[in-house]
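ping. complex inputs:
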Amino acid sequence: MTRVLLIAAAFGLLALSPLAAWLFDDPFLVTLFTRVVILALAAVALDLVLGYGGLVSLGHAAFLGIGAYTAGILASHAFDGSAFMTWPFEIGGSAQALVTWPLAMLTGGLLAAVLAPICLRTAGVHFIMITLAFAQMLYYFFISLPRYGGEDGLVLFARAEFPGLDLGDDVTFFYLCLILLGGYFLLARRLVAARLGMVLRGAKQNPGRMAALGFPLRRYQLAVYAISGAGTALAGALQAELDLFVSPTLLSWHQSGELVVIVLLGGMGTLIGPVFGAAALVLLEEVLGRFTEHWMFVLGPILVLVALFSRRGLLGWLEARLSR
Amino acid sequence: MPALLFVEQVLNGLQFGVMLFLMAAGLTLVFGIMRLINLAHGSFYMVGAYLCALAAGASGSFLLGLLAGLAGAALVGAAVEFLVIRRLYDRDHLDQVLATFGLILFFNELVKILFGPRPLLLDPPALLSGAVELLPGLPYPAYRLAIIGVGIAVALGLYLLIRHSRLGMIIRAGATHREIVAALGVNIRLVYTLVFGLGALLAGLAGAMIGPLLSVQIGMGEEILILTFVVIVIGGIGSIKGALVGALLVGVTDTLARVLLPLAFGAFLEPSAAAGVAASLASMMIYIVMALVLVWRPHGLFPAEGA
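pong. complex structure:
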């Protein structure tokens, strides 16, 4: 019950957050909260793999990056009217959100489905390392593409077009992101309550027994990895629209680490925890950043303390407080 | 390609491999024995490099700088183990990732506060600044040869320490049967601190020695850390032998790929396209090697016992 209340509170607060920008007369706050929502989307997607699948992926930046580059590359071709490829058939760019965003999800999901069979051959620390390695591979791949900005990144000139909406308006864009987060969140919640989630949780606790019961674990793990990859890629595409900029930093291992941090900070295996985690991390950075330019000097030890003393993250703490 | 140039590049690869081995040895020991995944290992490398550059700059002696780097890295390592790491041994890998990620942020920012954001430069010691003529027509920097020598010495020393000393015996026993070793009266916590400090010392050694070749800057630890992970995963986590083989394999592959691939692609592509494709494939090469090794042997080339 507390969980449902906290979910309602999280989404309610996010929905009201543009009011804060109006109240403090600081339009930058809308951008800040959009960042929270986008990071939350990526973190919810990661939580499916991490919290339910028990697969510690330190390479989710790969999906964030591929989503951002898919949207960015299509937009840049649409802008200068050139073709993405001419052979065997011609594919041009597109500035339509209803084209580029689903395509970003598709590439993210496909990438995950291709990588998962290789990664899932390993387990434990090896899984951490191999996901990291694939993300690094992609990082260097995009750095070496001068057509799309190489190391400097790709600048976009306008947000994508969405029928009936003006995404150039920050508040409209914020609410669209929030709706997408809500949609993915509901989907993820349905999934983990369904057979997929049951099998994954079983596999996390006792893989041998689940296999003996006849469940094709690899297939379930692959499915959840692909769904997670697609969600993270959508977050990447939204991030590209928010910044109007795509750069290889989105693919760096720091980004992967930050996503893991958000999930753990919020409380993994809860889906709503990562939403709290994203808000906490972004706001912490912002607040600390206003006091000192050396905010990482404070954030680092905070993360150490969280790792040492809080086993269930922010959500665990909130639930314990509320049920008392 | 002329044979002499090839020999020179292989030597460069070996020198790079030795650097990676110094990093990988500590990381793999810590994982093999304490089951701890330490993302902050690169921070000890950075500490070693900064202390060496500062002490050498202040005293004018590279040897003093080296000693300062080694001692500093070992002390910082032991202190971090005592304050944070020892609480993480029994925990999930996830908690270890979170805590050591936090340590990276802390150390990077600490170095920025103390020494400023600008990179430091360091000269090689005067004694080793020249070149040695290895073969007729093949001069090679003496400093890089010295690095290879140090690496071989460390590998031998570690072999003797782990396989043929009393401490090594306790370390090996502690890796598999921690409680029994403790019950026999060994202060296993102290052993763990020593092992962690030793790993930090080796990372500090690598950092101090790399100073004259690369610039000493914030974030240098993470660059090499990722490569080190690739090395120990290829070699088999927990195995020193695997770390050595993996490090040399990665070092030589990476160096040769950067030299040979542009030549190979240049044969059938136009120059600008060849340079782009070759550069991207060369940086991806070691990750491709790693993926292939893991597909073939999911636990690496030399899986440690019990890992």
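DSSP finds eleven helices and two strands in chain B.
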